From TrEMBL:
GO terms for molecular function: quercetin 3-O-glucosyltransferase activity; quercetin 7-O-glucosyltransferase activity. It comes from the Eukaryota. The gene is UGT83A1. Pfam families: UDPGT. Belongs to the UDP-glycosyltransferase family. SUPFAM superfamilies: UDP-Glycosyltransferase/glycogen phosphorylase. CDD domains: GT1_Gtf-like (cd03784). This is UDP-glycosyltransferase 83A1. It comes from Acorus calamus. InterPro entries: UDP_glucos_trans. Keywords: Transferase.
Amino acid sequence: MGSSSPPWPSPLPHAVVLPYPAQGHVIPLMELSHRLVDHGFSVTFVNTHFDHARVWASHPGPRAETGPLRLVSIPDGLEPGADRNDLGRLTLALLERMPGHLEELIRAASAEPERGPVTCVIADQSMPWALDVAKKMGLRGVAFWPASAGLLATMFSIPSLIEDGIINADGVPTSEHRMIRLCPEMPLMNTAHFVWNCLGDPITGRIIFDYITRGNKFIETAEWVLCNSFSHAEFPVFNYAPRIRPIGPLLPGLKPDRLVGRYWPEDSSCMEWLDQQPSNSVVYVAFGSFTIFDPHQFQELAIGLEKMGRRFLWVVRPDLTEAANTAFPGGFEERVAERGRMVGWSPQQRVLAHPSVACFMSHCGWNSTMEGITNGVPFLCWPYFADQFLNESYICDTWKVGLRLSKDAEGIVTREKIDKTVEALLGDSEVVGRALELKEVVARSIGEGGSSFDNFNEFVKSMKKVV
Ligand code: UDP
């Protein structure tokens, strides 16, 4: 052995990790941060003040302020009582106010002697301007995309979609009900379902479209574009856009001491309830952190769950409906008490790994999708907005591990449809069997020698090299 110094900086790399302030972004970026710490990095994890308070308030253990993974926060630019589910306003505020705060934070973090200077910025692809901050400060920049590579490739393709006349310069489809395929073997996409057209209202859509278009330019400077997917799941997309490197699914598994970054306190009592149910008997019903039901649909879902006569575990967030208080149909809780359980927020990753769970009625958020397939659980798909329609196509048409809960002419998923589709899914041994096969494929991708495992290690190695 020679006496030359190792080919990485000492102390080891210090990453500033910046998620978009939404639950489905904070959770995977937090897991990425833990993995980096496992590989000797120190991480400064930057939430907005608003999310920082929520994450600590819902964390059960003592608040750890030290150690290699440190949580800090900066303002999001909105006033304290503002509606942070208004994605248009939130995004504009972030863009205007956060870059300056991030720069200050990086300077302060670099001056702390025990960690060593910041060496790289790992920006959520939905915070692309952070890569510009990194560039100006002479730091290495990495983009991380917590959703599907298919969606990311679609966003990268905006200039050609405009050039080909599929959308206009504002992102609006030029014809109704047009189905396109971005690349061979990728699912067909309804142009009306492009993510910026599915955010509730056209003004928000326009703001997000502009934000994505500007963001695409910043991504060009990223050394790595990482994605929380795996190569088998979306191989045509990785051939079409080889810059995107899959390192997922990034899930903490059942490690109890991992800080997960959740916004709501978990109700873990449902795990004991699951322990008492027969294996493969429970329909798990959860729609992520954003989905809002209109009160009529909420009632219909409750009646549908009651009518199906099976066991169920239903996540009813306090803000799941448009009504101020989510109210069940009269007498519902008593009638289903023997076989149904409602919680405000579940430990979803543990729930999906539980042998009592038979299937997952889901809004098809990408994290939920990855968590379901990692555990071999088949899906009942009920997408609500953003990229969830594309994810539904992956589940039902590409991987064929789920069925759609289609709406009637009034736009309602009826009680009869719920009952029938649950029965159809659980009686379909091919779909259930494919879900179990896909679980094996995921395990191979993330296990030693798998493509996600190798990509992650290559990334870590490159970030440890002095440039
Ligand atoms: N989640 C959870 N408990 C719940 C519901 C959701 O822990 O009761 C987690 C879920 O495991 C996932 C995230 O919240 O990691 C939701 O992300 P997803 O992309 O599925 O949906 P979004 O909230 O972004 O719509």
